[in-house]
Amino acid sequence: MPTNVPLNICTTLRGICDILGIVALEWTRVEDKSSFGPSFELVTRLAESVTGINFFTHILGCFLMTCNRFTAVRFPQQQSHIWCKRNVWASLIVEIVFSVVTHYQAIVMNLVYKPKPDGGWVLNGTSGSVKETRVIDAVIPIVCEIASIVIISYTIYLIHKELQKGNRRLVRDVIVPNVRF
Fold first, then answer.
1. How far apart are CA 44 and CA 148, in angstroms?
2. Which of 109, 129, 128 is nearest to 44 (CA)?
3. Which sign, positive or negative, has the C-alpha torsion 72, 75, 80, 83?
4. Which residue has the higher pLDDT, 76 or 148?
5. At 152, phi and psi to the nearest 5?
6. Can you give the residue ranges of every domain in the chain?
7. Alpha carbons 138 and 52: distance in angstroms, whole number
8. N or C: which end of the chain has fewer CB within 10 A?
């Protein structure tokens, strides 16, 4: 039984990224409770940025999947041409680059710590403003989710419309196999 090497590499990379995301998330949770201090500042900045990048990539990936399902219903004959391997990889690369560029400011921004009386550290903020990153982190997911709701609603409407026309065979033979792909 031959193995699909690109699929195995992709699955391995996804697993590694999931593990990195979980480690980064847990690092930031611990940092919020009891700060590690300036000696771990770079790791803390990277962990906080990776958490944001993972969240952003996830939201944009969900939007791409919604678009994929929409094209499966709306353009079933062109589905394989629209979502060919080249287009999928290009959209994934753009998604990841956009996520990293969006969070670049948080990566390079220094954290400011204040010593506690007991010898520990308290995270006191950043050396500059990350307002733009926070605004983008708030607006883009909301826009993607609203757009996804609209696209999903329209997709359901299109399926319902085809069923009302009596095109059960089209729905059964063309649309459903593409959506389940």
1. 33
2. 109
3. negative
4. 148
5. -65, -45
6. 5-180
7. 11
8. N
Q: Which two tokens stand for residue 36?
A: 């590690």
Which tokens in the block code for residue 157?
Answer: 């409407």
Which residue blocks in the chain are alpha helix, DSSP H?
5-33, 41-74, 79-82, 85-102, 104-108, 131-164, 168-170, 176-180
Where do we find the tokens 């006191």?
Answer: 124
Q: What is the pLDDT of residue 94?
A: 92
Can you tell me which residue has the tokens 């059964």?
172
The predicted-structure confidence for 150-175, as pLDDT tens digits, reads as follows 999 998 888 788 777 877 776 666 66
For the chain, the straight-line distance linking the first and the last C-alpha, in angstroms and rounded, comes to: 22
Q: Output the pLDDT for position 175.
A: 61
C-alpha triplet 14, 92, 18: angle, nearest 5°: 20
Angle at Cα 48 formed by Cα 17 and Cα 115, nearest 5°? 145
Cβ atoms 79, 71 nearer than 8 A: yes
Quick one: pLDDT at residue 61?
87
Distances in Å between the alpha carbon of 110 and those of 28, 29, 151, 162?
Answer: 15, 18, 40, 56
